[in-house]
Design brief:
Elements (H helix, E strand, L loop, with lengths): L1 H10 L4 E5 L5 H11 L4 E5 L3 H7 L11 H8 L4 E4 L2 H7 L2 E4 L19 H13 L4 E5 L7 H12 L7 E5 L9 H6 L4 E5 L3 H14 L8 E5 H32 L3 H9 L20 H14 L3 H28 L8 E5 L14 H11 L3 E5 L5 H9 L16 H4 L1 E3 L3 H5 L4 E4 L11 H7 L5 E4 L6 H7 L2 E4 L13
Parallel strand pairs: 1-2, 1-4, 2-3, 4-5, 5-6, 7-8, 9-10, 9-12, 10-11, 12-13, 13-14
Length: 491
C-alpha cells in the first residue's frame, strides 16, 4: 500500500487546479484545498476584477469565520487569484466550475428552472483554451443530467481531437457561517463520475486530492446522476425540516403551546434529531429555495406533477411564514405601520455571514413598507450598499453577476443605521430577523427609553430574553410561543 501511495503521489506531481468563479463556494473551497495540499497549485479565476483584487487584499470579498487565516496561509505559495482565465484554465489538470446557476426569470421554466447560461459559457471557454485533457468538476448546483449537456458543449467546441474531458459532479454541502469547519471536517465529500475506465480514473484523481486531509471512508463515490440529484435532495430535505417546524409555530401561537418545547421534545427522538428545528421568520440563502424550485421543475419535466407539488409546498410554507410575520407586526401595532419607524436588527439570512441572498429580511421589509412603514436596518456585517441593492432588485435577479441598484419606492423608506441604538432611536418597534449573538447583549432598557410607546419587540429568531424585555416594558412577540395578552385579539 505504501509503494502504491508513492506511485500515486508521483503520478499526480505538479498538479494544477483552476476554479472558475471566485464566490462563496469557489473561494473558500479552493483556499482549503491549497492549504491542505501544498504540493498542488490552485488558482481561482474570475472576470470580475474588483472581486479578484479583494481576494488578493487584506479585506476579502466575503465574510466567513476562519477564512482569512486559511487564505493567508496559502496565498502566494500555492494559492493564487487571477483574472487571466484562459491562461490558468488552459494549464490546469482539474477545472472546478463554480459559477452562478440562477433561477430563470423568463421563457420556458421561468420561476423554477435553473439558468445554465454561465455554466455553458464556462464550458465553451474551457473548450477553447484547452490543449490537454482535463477533469471538469461541477461545483455549482445544477439540474440532473447537466453533465451530459456540458459534455456535448465541451467536445463540440474543442478543436484538438486528442483532448479528452471527463466530467465529475462534486456538489458542495457547506453551511455559511461554518463553511471553514465544514471544509476541514466534512460529514462527507461526494464525487460522481461516469462508470467507465476513464471515469473511474478521474474519480480516483479527485478522491486523492481530498484524501490529503479527509479520511477515505468519508469520500463517497457515486454515478454522475446520483451525485447531481443528491445535492438538490439534501437541500430540499433541510428546507423541509425548517418549513415543517415553522408550520407548527403558527399552530403553537393559536393554542398556547411553545414551539421551542415542541422542537426539543421531538428532537430528542434519535430518529429525528435536533438539527434544523429552530422555528424562525423563514429560511434564506442562495440554495434552499433555488434548489427546491429546480427540483420541482425537473419533476414536472418528467411528468411527476404530484412530486413537484409536494416539494413546492416547502417553498409556499416559507412564503407564508414571512407573510405571517409581517401581518403579526402590522396587526399588533393597531393595524397600521404607516409613517412608523421600525428598527430591523439583522439583514443577513443567518448569523456569522454577510450573505443576504434570499434573506427573509427583504420580504419582511418590503411587506412593512407596502403598509407605509419606514425600515431602519442595522446589521454588523452587511454593507449599506448591499442592503439597498437587495431592496431594489427584482426576485431571482440577485444571483446574476453585477446586478445593480435600480430606482424604486422601497429605497425611499429604507434607512441604514451605523449602530443598533441609532436604529432603535425613535422607533415604534424592533424586528429581530438575524440571530446574531451580539443582539443578546444589547442594553434594551436604554433602547426602550429612546423608543415610542408602546414599544414592541418582534423576535423572529427567538434569541432574546423575552421575560427580561417584558420587565423593561416592551410588548414582546416571540415567534411560535404563547402570545402576549396585549397581542391577542378580542374579537
Amino acid at each position: 500500500p505504501r509503494a502504491l501511495c508513492r506511485h500515486r503521489l508521483a503520478s499526480f506531481a505538479a498538479m494544477k487546479i483552476a476554479c472558475i468563479g471566485a464566490g462563496y463556494v469557489g473561494g473558500p473551497t479552493m483556499a482549503m484545498i491549497a492549504a491542505k495540499c501544498p504540493d498542488i497549485t490552485v488558482t481561482v479565476v474570475d472576470i470580475n476584477e474588483a472581486r479578484i483584487a479583494a481576494w488578493n487584499s487584506d479585506t476579502l470579498p466575503i465574510y466567513e469565520p476562519g477564512l482569512d487565516e486559511v487564505v493567508k496561509s496559502a496565498r502566494g505559495r500555492n494559492l493564487f487569484f487571477s483574472t487571466d482565465t484562459h491562461k490558468h484554465v488552459g494549464e490546469a489538470d482539474i477545472v472546478f466550475v463554480s459559477v452562478n446557476t440562477p433561477t430563470k426569470t423568463s421563457g420556458i421554466g421561468a420561476g423554477k428552472a435553473a439558468d445554465l447560461t454561465y455554466w455553458e459559457g464556462a464550458a465553451r471557454m474551457i473548450a477553447a483554451c484547452s490543449t490537454s485533457s482535463k477533469i471538469i468538476v461541477e461545483k455549482s448546483t445544477v439540474p440532473v443530467k447537466t453533465a451530459e449537456a456540458i459534455g456535448k458543449v465541451l467536445t463540440r467546441n474543442c478543436s484538438d481531437p486528442n483532448v479528452h474531458f471527463e466530467i465529475l459532479s462534486n456538489p458542495e454541502f457547506l453551511a455559511e457561517g461554518t463553511a471553514i469547519e465544514d471544509l476541514q471536517n466534512p460529514d462527507r465529500v461526494l464525487i460522481g463520475g461516469q462508470e467507465t475506465e476513464t471515469g473511474r480514473k478521474a474519480v480516483a484523481t479527485l478522491k486523492w486530492v481530498y484524501e490529503h486531509w479527509i479520511p477515505s471512508e468519508r469520500v463517497l463515490t457515486a454515478n454522475l446522476w446520483s451525485a447531481e440529484l443528491a445535492k438538490l435532495t439534501a437541500n430540499a430535505f433541510l428546507a423541509q425540516r425548517i418549513s415543517s417546524i415553522n408550520s407548527i409555530s403558527a399552530l403553537c401561537e393559536t393554542t398556547g403551546a411553545d414551539v421551542s418545547q415542541v422542537a426539543h421534545a421531538i428532537g430528542t427522538d434519535s430518529r429525528i434529531g435536533h438539527k434544523f428545528l429552530n422555528a424562525s421568520v423563514g429560511f434564506g440563502g442562495s440554495c434552499f429555495q433555488k434548489d427546491i424550485l429546480n427540483l420541482c421543475y425537473v419533476c414536472e419535466s418528467v411528468g411527476l406533477k404530484e412530486v413537484a407539488d409536494y416539494w413546492f409546498s416547502v417553498v409556499s410554507m416559507n412564503d407564508y411564514q414571512k407573510n405571517r410575520f409581517v401581518e403579526r407586526v402590522i396587526s399588533s401595532m393597531f393595524n397600521t405601520v404607516s409613517r412608523k419607524k421600525v428598527a430591523i436588527f439583522g439583514f443577513a439570512f443567518k448569523k456569522d455571514t454577510g450573505d443576504t441572498r434570499e434573506t427573509p429580511a427583504i420580504d419582511v421589509c418590503k411587506g412593512l413598507i407596502r403598509d407605509g412603514g419606514k425600515c431602519c436596518v442595522f446589521d454588523p456585517q452587511v454593507s449599506a450598499d448591499q442592503i439597498m441593492r437587495d431592496m431594489s432588485t427584482p426576485k431571482f435577479e440577485w444571483d446574476r453577476p453585477n446586478y445593480s441598484r435600480s430606482s424604486t419606492r422601497f429605497l425611499e423608506n429604507v434607512e441604514i443605521a451605523a449602530s443598533y441604538d441609532a436604529a432603535a432611536d425613535g422607533a415604534h418597534a424592533i424586528c429581530v430577523l438575524t440571530e446574531w449573538d451580539e443582539f443578546k447583549g444589547y442594553d434594551y432598557a436604554a433602547l426602550y427609553a429612546k423608543m415610542q410607546k408602546p414599544a414592541f419587540v418582534f423576535d423572529g429568531r427567538n434569541v432574546l430574553d423575552h421575560a427580561k424585555l417584558r420587565d423593561i416594558g416592551f410588548i414582546v412577540y416571540a415567534l411560535g410561543k404563547p402570545l402576549d395578552p396585549f397581542l391577542q385579539k378580542g374579537y
